[in-house]
Amino acid sequence: MTTTSSQEKHGSAGTASEFGHVAGPNTVVFERVLPGPIERVWAYLTESDKRAKWLAAGDMELHVGGRVELIFRNSELAPTGEPVPERFRGNSQEMRSEGCVTRCEPPRLLSFLWGGANDGSEITFELSPQGADVRLVLTHSRLANRAALVDVSGGWHIHLRVLADELSGRPKQPFWSELERLEAEYDRRIPGAAKA
């Protein structure tokens, strides 16, 4: 997952590489450059109404040990009338997940466990100013196996595209068909050695 084409280097989110890369047997990392300022991007990570526009609604207590609730309604991120592929239909209306904050340093760093303190994975968002823009590094670690790496890689890729579109004022693009394509692409890119 380390090679990038010219198109990937200058993707729609203005990033060095659109595709995430495996940074260990249980970790995937994404980088994006987003329209600033940093406080605005932080709000889209932490405020339920703004986070709902690209990922998931839900309360987030911004202190170590604070509760994180994620309420996914992915069909609301898709253009009206976009068909949901059969394999995603069970998850197309609403999914809920809980976790807890492990690090919180506004407006630059947020980490939380997703799916349980002992058996869940961990997500870290790191923000840094880059001129008028903001560099976001997203690290998803403690993933159970290669299947989880493929699953979350396609998911984060599409959700980060939705975030970039939202921050840039662009209209909704296809969600479900792109998610299906991205999962297949990550399945091709992530080596079998990534299996835990």
Structure write-up:
- The protein has helices at residues 6-9, 38-46, 48-51, 146-168, 176-189; strands at 21-24, 27-35, 67-72, 95-105, 109-114, 121-130, 133-141.
- It is built from 5 helices and 7 strands; from the N terminus they run αββααβββββαα.
- Helix 4 crosses helix 5.
- It has one domain: START domain (Alpha-D-Glucose-1,6-Bisphosphate, Chain A, domain 4, 2-Layer Sandwich), CATH 3.30.530.20.
- The relative contact order is 0.20.
- It is globular.
- By secondary structure, the protein is an alpha+beta fold.
- The longest helix has 23 residues, at 146-168.
- A 7-stranded antiparallel β-sheet has the order 1-2-7-6-5-4-3, covered by helices on one side.
- Helix content is 28%, strand content 28%.
- The two termini are 17 Å apart.
- Mean pLDDT is 88; it is low at 1-16.
